[in-house]
Amino acid sequence: MTFKVIDEMIRETEKELKALKKYPDEKLIEIIKEVGFECDLCGMCCTRQFNDHVFLLEKDVEAMKQIDESLITPAPYYEFCDQKGNFYVSGYSLRTKEDGSCVLLENNRCTIYDKRPTICSLYPYMLHRETDEEGNLDWRQISGLDQHGCYHSEIKDEDAKVIASDIKEYEEAYLEQQIAFFKKVKEHFKENGSRHVKSVYDRQMRAFEKGKEIVVYVFHNNGLELCRISKEE
User: Fold this and answer.
1) Sign of the Cα pseudo-torsion (212, 215, 218, 221, in order)
2) Which of 14, 46, 80, 109 might form a disulfide with 196, Cβ 3.0–4.6 angstroms?
3) Which pLDDT tens digits describe the chain residue by residue (233 residues)?
């Protein structure tokens, strides 16, 4: 059953990647110009109030490791858990403080602004297919609209084109990383006689919430890196 589920995940993600590549640049550029987002340095996008976590692309992980390896942690919401209680997740994310704000945020300013992760430089523009509050599946292009920052500022055509290109490049890299992760987990499961077990996943998560250390295999550089983490981390 596990392999059929993983194969379906691969197919669906490949389908989304294909659709993303067909998404009209002109439409995205139009949205960018219409929204006209301008940062007002409020720092709210770096808090849990607006962003659950900052997912890192492969290149972002390497950049953060060069600054300080303690900045990264396995991304939350692990996709799989095998019968031995080992979790598997598609990448790393930035650590957060106890209040949920980014570990790099100090006095509402990013301490590595010039080297910040890719998604941070593109926010609030997104391009994921997600369900809205009414359950309708559609492309999500803006995050936190009208909730922070300034809007309806003038954005030149050339600047909007660059932003649009960068957004699609990020989203394509994200989906390609997801596909590669699913394929690697399938390969790993076959080689080790493993399978995803939902009941073990739930049991391990309950233990984790109570402070138990867990093993998480994180996808990076087309491999699975073993990490041991506990709730206080």
Assistant:
1) positive
2) 80
3) 689 999 999 999 999 999 999 999 999 999 999 888 888 888 888 888 777 889 999 999 999 999 999 999 999 999 999 999 999 999 999 999 988 899 999 988 999 999 999 999 888 888 887 777 777 767 777 776 667 778 888 999 999 999 999 999 999 999 999 999 999 999 999 999 999 999 999 999 999 999 999 999 999 999 999 999 998 65
Closest by alpha carbon to 26, among 214, 161, 145, 117?
161
Query: Which are the contacts of 219, defined by CB distance < 8 A and separation ≥ 6?
Result: 88, 89, 90, 91, 177, 180, 181, 184, 185, 225
User: What six digits make up the tokens of 135?
Assistant: 């359950």
Could you tell me the two tokens for 68? 């300080």
pTM of the model: 0.91
